[in-house]
Design goal:
single chain; 655 residues; Rossmann fold; 6-stranded parallel β-sheet; 23 strands; 39% helix; thiamine pyrophosphate; hydrolase; EC 3.7.1.22; DHS-like_NAD/FAD-binding_dom; 3D-(3,5/4)-trihydroxycyclohexane-1,2-dione hydrolase activity
């Protein structure tokens, strides 16, 4: 429904046309829900080629219930042409899809999500935490209790025995970058611009939650008409300060063995070209985090590959010997730093739009947009180059690792041995190369992110979409749907373990309904293989992870037919008995007109031996089992090894 500005003399005609009447000149009378939806629909963003503009919000995922069907449902129906409403099958999953949509757009476009109160709202909490950890924008619009308290307690209301103003939605506060409960329509005049600023600010970016009480959703008010005027949103990111750039320049200028750590901020700042120029001009090798992978093309001579616990031997060797590390757009979490053991000997410079992330690990901080900071540094560093022997070593290590990856992903297969993740990745990669398609691979949790971080060859920014900040099982298929909605022209390949598939698979049906075709490869190792290996590495016995090691009834562990299940959800599907059959199935999947699921049995014990680094997982200090005591001794040795360089650094600071 298109609203026009209503003046006093329009009231009579407005009643005749069904449009809400206004009591004040220059205003339009709308419900809270109508105003919220109309505001979202009015927001625009410049297209990627800067030739025009497109909606900032790609749509609203909605599962309706008694807490939002009347208010938000009616408002979304009125604006369904300008702001599409997408129906999903699980609230957490649809929020994952919305988050993945934003990530695939490098945070330049986004989606909103609306639910009823009670379980509909609390189902969003895991997704909110995921968006918070990954610094990704999503607008969460859960229904809430009645402000009037007249039907108190309303169906699904969570009552707080000490505070009558608390509802289940207060649980969103720790996992939202901005939270507000809209108790009067006029609040939208301040809440919505604040929400939009958080969603479009590189330093603040994360989930926004606007809790919407049911009665307030339906309440009308005279809103200023110009509040809904279409506008092109400006994205905010800090420009570098001269003094911080000067300090970073001084550190880099005296470095002989620098290393760049490319984090997600490189992609979100659209700084890949600037990074390539900077690294090439100054001879600095680049290592990529999970969020930053695809910042450089896989075959760039200075791309040393994945860094850290799931890193390549090339990147980790360079990190261990670097005298200066330039971390760009990274949170420097423990998988990147090897639980703070990888580059303790180096001076650390952190370029980050978010000061909270930039000051970690005793860094010299440049609080700035990645591209602008790199360009400012490049201007000062003209004529400077890293030690030539260091650059040559980086080229050699990177080339050697690329050869190793090729060998690992093209290993000959034996009929009597189950394939492992590296074999499956190789088959998928060969399928991509053969089709000459610009695929996007999507994954999230378990062994696969480690193997993909090492082995996947990303040719361009965004070709690698792995959620590993929160390592959230169940993100994969829902996330793949969001990526496909964002990049419909690309083939989206979801790689998922059987554990994650069983945890959340309902959006296969949504993808079929929306015509958003995915290729889903399910690796079935009959349980939680990754955690099973970690359990044993810590001295534990195989217990409660693989299905065969779990408590069972008289029928034993089930044999799950993933292909049959996927077909029941409307997809096409088949089971591949080996890698050769997988490659043939992938070609059929590419030719299919709908989501296509392929399952394959894999080995839960095998992983890629090359690369990797220590990761701190606390081992019990006391145990009756010898294997745990042995693991504890190794753990204490690693703690001692980490403590020494830290102590040395503290002594140096004091001196």
């Amino acid at each position: 429904m298109n609203h026009r500005v209503l003046h006093h003399d329009d009231a009579a005609s407005a009643r005749g046309t069904g449009e809400a009447s206004s009591r004040l000149a220059g205003t339009v009378r709308l419900t809270t829900a109508q105003a919220l939806v109309r505001y979202l629909a009015a927001q625009r963003v410049a297209t990627e080629d800067r030739s025009g503009s497109e909606p900032l919000f790609g749509g609203v995922f909605a599962i309706f219930g008694h807490g939002n069907v009347a208010g938000m449902g009616e408002a979304l129906y009125q604006h369904r042409d300008a702001l599409p409403t997408l129906r999903a099958h699980n609230e957490q999953a649809m929020a994952h899809s919305a988050i993945a949509y934003a990530k695939a757009h490098f945070r330049r476009r986004m989606m909103a999500v609306t639910t009823s109160i009670g379980p509909g709202a609390t189902n969003l909490l895991t997704a909110a935490a995921l968006a918070h950890v990954n610094r990704l924008p999503v607008l969460l619009l859960p229904g809430d209790i009645f402000v009037s308290r007249a039907p108190d307690p309303v169906l699904q209301q969570v009552e707080d025995f000490n505070d009558g103003g608390v509802s289940a939605n207060d649980a969103f506060k720790p996992v939202s970058r901005y939270f507000d409960r809209i108790v009067h329509p006029a609040q939208l005049l301040t809440a919505l611009p604040r929400a939009l600023r958080v969603l479009t600010d590189a330093a603040l970016c994360g989930p926004v939650t606007l809790a919407l009480p049911q009665d307030v959703q339906a309440q009308a008010w005279d809103f200023p008409a110009d509040f809904f005027a279409p506008r092109v949103v400006t994205f905010h990111s800090p420009a570098p300060r001269d003094d911080e750039i000067d300090a970073a320049f001084a550190h880099l200028r005296r470095a002989r063995r620098p290393l760049i750590v490319a984090g997600g901020g490189v992609l979100y700042g659209r700084a890949s070209d600037a990074l390539h120029r900077f690294a090439t001009t100054h001879g600095i090798p680049v290592a990529e985090t999970q969020a930053g992978k695809s910042s450089l093309a896989w075959n760039d001579p200075l791309n040393a590959g994945a860094l850290g616990v799931t890193g390549s031997p090339a990147a980790n060797a360079l990190a261990l010997d670097a005298d200066c590390v330039l971390a760009i757009g990274s949170r420097l979490q423990d998988f990147t730093t090897g639980s703070n053991t990888l580059f303790t000997q180096a001076e650390l410079i952190g370029i980050n739009a978010n000061a909270f992330d930039g000051v970690k690990h005793r860094t010299l901080t440049v609080e700035a947009d990645a591209r602008l900071a790199l360009e400012a540094l490049a201007e000062r560093l003209q004529g400077w180059h890293a030690d030539r022997a260091w650059t040559a070593r980086a080229h050699k290590l990177a080339a050697s690792w690329r050869d190793t990856v090729s060998t690992l992903t093209h290993a000959p297969q034996r009929e009597t041995v189950l394939p492992y993740e590296g074999d499956v990745i190789g088959a998928v990669q060969r399928s991509s190369a053969a089709s000459d398609k610009d695929d996007i691979v999507v994954c999230a949790a378990g062994t696969l992110p480690a193997e993909l971080h090492k082995l996947w060859r990303a040719g361009r920014p965004g070709a690698y979409h792995v959620e590993y900040g929160y390592s959230c099982m169940g993100y994969e298929i829902a996330g793949g749907l969001g990526v496909k909605l964002a990049r419909p022209e690309r083939e989206v390949i979801v790689m998922v373990g059987d554990g994650s598939y069983l945890m959340m698979n309902s959006e296969i049906a949504t993808s079929v309904m929306l015509g958003a075709k995915l290729i889903v490869v399910v690796l079935d190792n009959r349980g939680y293989g990754c955690i099973n290996r970690l359990q044993q590495a810590c001295g534990g016995a195989p217990f409660n992870n693989l299905l065969d090691d779990c408590l069972q009834g008289p029928l034993g562990a089930p044999r799950i037919d993933f292909a049959a299940h996927a077909r029941a959800l409307g997809a096409q599907a088949e089971h591949a008995a080996n890698i050769a059959e997988l490659e043939a199935a992938l070609q059929r999947a590419r030719a299919a007109d709908r989501t296509y699921v392929i399952s394959i049995d894999t080995d839960p014990a095998r992983t890629t031996d090359d690369g990797g680094w220590w990761w701190e997982v606390a081992v019990p200090e006391v145990s009756t089992r010898d294997s745990v005591r042995v693991a504890r001794a190794k753990y204490e040795a690693q703690l001692a090894a980490r403590a020494e360089p830290m102590a040395a650094a503290e002594r140096t600071d004091k001196e």
